[in-house]
Structures are given as structure tokens and as C-alpha cells.
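Reproducibility note. Readers wishing to regenerate the assembly model reported in the main text can use the exact inputs given here. Chain order matters: entities are listed in the order in which they were concatenated for prediction.
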Amino acid sequence: QSALTQPPSASGSPGQSVTISCTGTSSDVGGYNYVSWYQQYPGKAPKVVIYEVNKRPSGVPDRFSGAKSGNTASLTVSGLQADDEADYYCSSYAGSTFLWVFGGGTKLTVL
Amino acid sequence: EVQLVESGGGLVQPGGSLRLSCVGSGLTFSNYVMSWVRQAPGKGLEWVSGISGSGDTTYYAGSVKGRFTISRDNSQSTLYLQMSSLGAEDTAVYYCAKITTYPTADYWGQGTLVSVSS
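Running the prediction on these inputs yields the following C-alpha cells for the assembly.
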């Protein structure tokens, strides 16, 4: 099972919005409404910020939003803040055999 | 508060074996699907293995199938990963994670580092 495709980097200035894409196939992203996004700071465990394409866990600011069109999912971070600077990973359910596939990660820099 | 604490990582020679443990607290451990996810140094996340709440059903990534075995002892609220025939490509921080619905993990351990080197 191949990893999902994410851009290696993204950036924006404080207050701006940035969108990170995540491209898979009809066997994962396109086949299920089970896409999650994780935020990871260096040396720390990942934290889920979006699940089931566009749902936010309690405690995650509404500046984080998710969407999906066909085989591509996206994460938008609005009103960028300094502490949004982190690595972001998309992930998708990939069926009953492979279960869980991740993207390669995107390093978000707040300029 | 839910806590997951991994242990068992360390330095192992190529071809060797190692068993990781993950102890859960603050939750009814047997109610939840659990998984192992790893992250090689400077690299992205990779799902390794998953197990049902009862332990009856297990899943493996292709890269570890036949070499790794996931198991759990619900009486001890502990998840295990038995790793054998280890190679340099298995060097990573290994996280245990509590699954709500794949691919969503709402709690993660702090990770344990496995280094495979001679």
C-alpha cells in the first residue's frame, strides 16, 4: 500500500490561511469518508486535529478545517498563529487488509 | 485521564528480536482497538499493526508481516509488539495508539526508540 502524497512544505504569514493537500487513490482517500489529520511537534507524539474528513475533536480550534474531493483531501488552517508551526500528516482508512495509510507529512512554517 | 506508556525499546543487532510493551491507564482497555505506529528518524509516520479489543483479530503492514506479532493482555491493560528478524529499516520510534475508528487515534504514548545496528 503506497503512502498518500502531501507537499513536503507549506508556509504562510500570521493571520493568513494555508491549505495542505493529500492525494490518494480510490482504494483509500477516495473510497471512504475516513480521513484524519495529525499535528506533530518535534519530539512529540502526533495529535489528531481533524477526523472523518471534516470533524474537529473537542479542544481543536475552529481555525482547523478539513475537506475532500475525489481522491484528494485537504486541511486548511486559517488565521495562522506561531504555534501552528508543526508537521502535519494526513491519513486514511485503506480497507480491511491495509487498514491505515499515512501521507509523507508537510512541514508548516509560519513566516 | 487516559495514559499510554511504552517501554522495551533499545539497541538490537540486525537479525535480533525485541518485545515492546504499552501499558494503558484511565480507560477500560479491553473496549478499544489498539495499534502500533512507527516513525523512522527524520521520516514520516507508518502504521505497523493493529489488534481488536478482544485480541481475536490482528492486522499488519506488509513491511512487517511475518516478522512482527501484536498481542494484548487485557487483564494487565497491556499491548505488546514482538519484533523479530529486525533490520536497519526497523529503526524508529514506536508509538502505541488508542483507536476510535481507523484512521483516528485519540491517544498516543510518548514513544519508545528501537535502534537496529551492529
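We highlight two features of this model. The first strand of chain B starts at residue 3 and ends at 7. Chain B has a mean pLDDT of 96.
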